[in-house]
Amino acid sequence: MVGMKTGSGIKTLESRLVEHLASRPRGAAHGDPTGDLTRVTRNCLAAAVRTLGPRSTPVRQPDEIAGSAVRWAREGIALESVLGAYHDGIRSGLEFLAAAAGDGDAEQVVAGTRLIVQALEMVTVAASAAYVEEHRLVAKEHQTAAQTLVSALLGGHGVAQLARQTGITIAPAYQVVAVSIPRHPDEMRPGSGHAAARRKLRRVQSALADPFGSRALALLSTDGGTVLVPSETASALTPLAMTAEVLELVSSVAEVPLTAAVVAGRTERIPELAARAHELLDRVRKDRRPPGLYPVESADAVVEADAVEIGDR
């Protein structure tokens, strides 16, 4: 920590460093067109330096560090951008200290450098923890809303109002995927079954988010459940669909071989589609068929075929 021998001089350098960090920067950081991220992170760094100061007792981190991180998480600003802006501020502070070295007091410069490194540690830990926790809460809120919406779609009622409340867009058609998740070897160990099952489920949910993002709606337990994948194209080269390859990828991440039955059709027919998919899945499991993706004939195609057949009569 900062020594007492040159306490008054170090205090002067500390004050100048705080003033430098809090001053309006010449340019915004990369990926920060408005300059708001740069301005706030510099102010947070100044507050950290001010809070730490030349003392040896533990200090409470400034509230604005976590508060701003929470806001950025809500606004969808990447954590890399947040930390990058902090590091830009630290570099600026170190450049300021290097220029101050010309004054000839090396002890002040060393103490100031130690202080700004401590500030970097404070803002990095505080901002990262607050950002990740808020991101986790946002993801949990979305997951809860998605599960509620899936339940409504499977029940065939109250979908429009619920979609407005959750802000989740309802697609005109979906792939309805009935999924069976077998037990992981870790679930067999005494005393660790429940925790291992929850970890397995989180791996499945994380793996589904990779190809589908937030567009797929899932209602899953540790044994399986239903996933609704909107029947649309994410891009010309990347169709948004459950395929055998996607299921294999999810199985690899989950560390268990998944079995699924899939059928596609219009959104209003999801209850019927889900019944068909789960019926096929039950037969596949009963017959001890190997894991993989088993397609059900499209319900819409069946309806169209029936209509043609009846018309021909």
What does this structure look like?
This is Transcriptional regulator. It comes from Nocardia aurea. It holds the Pfam family RsbRD_N. The chain has 313 residues and is an alpha+beta fold. The protein folds into two domains: 7-138; 171-312, Reverse transcriptase/Diguanylate cyclase domain (Alpha-Beta Plaits), CATH 3.30.70.270. Helices cover 60% and strands 12% of the residues. The protein has ten helices and seven strands. The chain has helices spanning 7-22, 36-52, 63-75, 79-100, 106-155, 159-166, 193-212, 244-254, 270-286, 299-312; strands at residues 173-180, 217-221, 224-230, 232-233, 239-240, 259-266, 292-295. The protein has a five-stranded mixed β-sheet with strand order 2-3-1-6-7. The protein has a two-stranded antiparallel sheet with strand order 4-5. β6 (259-266), α9 (270-286) and β7 (292-295) form a beta-alpha-beta unit. α1 (7-22) packs across α5. It is elongated and about 80 Å long. 30% of the residues are buried.
Topology:
Layout: H1 7-22, H2 36-52, H3 63-75, H4 79-100, H5 106-155, H6 159-166, E1 173-180, H7 193-212, E2 217-221, E3 224-230, E4 232-233, E5 239-240, H8 244-254, E6 259-266, H9 270-286, E7 292-295, H10 299-312
Parallel strand pairs: 6-7
Antiparallel strand pairs: 1-3, 1-6, 2-3, 4-5
